[in-house]
Design brief:
about 120 residues; alpha/beta; two-stranded antiparallel ribbon; about 25% strand; globular
Length: about 120
């Protein structure tokens, strides 16, 4: 099984799924942690994107070993040709908002992190 990407909004369950897969022996990488990202200047302002050079190097290193990545970035489509599958995790908006209020990672709790959210 080549690499698979778990993607979705904050609170969709990517980190929880990675933990469960790691317990089953899969090699997993949470791209929210470590040096997998960088700020770049996009036409509409700063954007937090994947360091594609590092992710391509990781995929080269693991070769045909099973790998599950998790993350959601504006440039993730550039990695799709190297992935076996992209799995979109979803949940209803009230569930997403409740989950981000009660997790370790503070992203998503502040109103500015929830721009464009529907009123619940």
């Amino acid at each position: 099984m080549p690499a698979v990407l778990l993607t979705g909004m904050s609170g969709a369950g990517k980190s929880a799924a990675l933990l469960a897969l790691a317990r089953r022996g899969y090699l997993v990488v949470d791209t929210d942690a470590g040096d997998w990202n960088e700020w770049v200047q996009a036409p509409d302002g700063p954007d937090w994107v994947w360091r594609l050079d590092r992710l391509h190097a990781l995929l080269d290193e693991v070769g045909s070993a099973p790998l599950v990545l998790a993350g959601c970035r504006s440039n993730q489509g550039a990695l799709y040709p190297r992935l076996r599958a992209v799995v979109l995790l979803t949940a209803p908006l009230p569930v997403l908002l409740a989950r981000v209020q009660h997790r370790e990672n503070p992203y998503g709790r502040a109103a500015e992190d929830q721009i464009g959210r529907a009123h619940v």
